[in-house]
Amino acid sequence: xxxxxxxxxxxxxxxxxxxxxxxxxxxxxxxxxxxxxxxxxxxxxxxxxxxxxxxxxxxxxxxxxxxxxxxxxxxxxxxxxxxxxxxxxxxxxxxxxxxxxxxxxxxxxxxxxxxxxxxxxxxxxxxxxxxxxxxxxxxxxxxxxxxxxxxxxxxxxxxxxxxxxxxxxxxxxxxxxxxxxxxxxxxxxxxxxxxxxxxxxxxxxxxxxxxxxxxxxxxxxxxxxxxxxxxxxxxxxxxxxxxxxxxxxxxxxxxxxxxxxxxxxxxxxxxxxxxxxxxxxxxxxxxxxxxxxxxxxxxxxxxxxxxxxxxxxxx
Length: 315
Known about the structure:
By secondary structure, the protein is mainly α. The chain is 70% helix and 0% strand. The relative contact order is 0.13. Residues 5-17 and 271-315 have low confidence and may be disordered.
């Protein structure tokens, strides 16, 4: 008779896990979810913050720009730091940093302080993707790395997807400050789990011999093939930037990121303004966020009624 799932989880500490690498990438995915949850909190709370602090759209754009500039500068530096410290310590420290920076948003007194805290968030959150890539390189043979990268990358979509209901609920029940405290605090817990639970494949005590051979054997074969292709010479920056395959990845990625960052930072605010959505009371309901009956004007304001087609829709 098969054991229940919770019994399997309870015995994980005493048993060697045959597919431990997939548990490791699941932990990375959770970290990416929390990273993007913290990142998306500001854009969801923007209508409330702009009204509370009498913040203009131009001032809000400076807050967003502070994050983007810091994030851009920090990504290569975060990669260097992860190589120097190792992904176990480095990822945990960066997670502590972005969690603290996000919590600090609750103490902002205007758009300049929001910009400062947003810049600190960008400096620390930039490590998430480089750390995920490094973990994939350490824990997966080349034949499995594309799948593993796809798995941890879904964390970005999941984090952005759960941010609206979480942030709206926090604002409606406890106030806007709580939205940043809640979405930031969970990162502290994840950082502790990561630091005490992660090891390299060479050192992990619960990694079976067969899985260790599977991982390290694939890495050894890759290293041998790379040495033959490169003639045992390291690939320098000057060699890299003149390669066509480098630019075939860099240019589309740059264009895609520009659209994605703009949508993530602006679309929630624009859509909320168009719907005249005022976060008072609790507008949460299944399906359309404005489909809850509104007995008085203390809930969401009404504009363009019925555009979603629901009988009680107010958007």
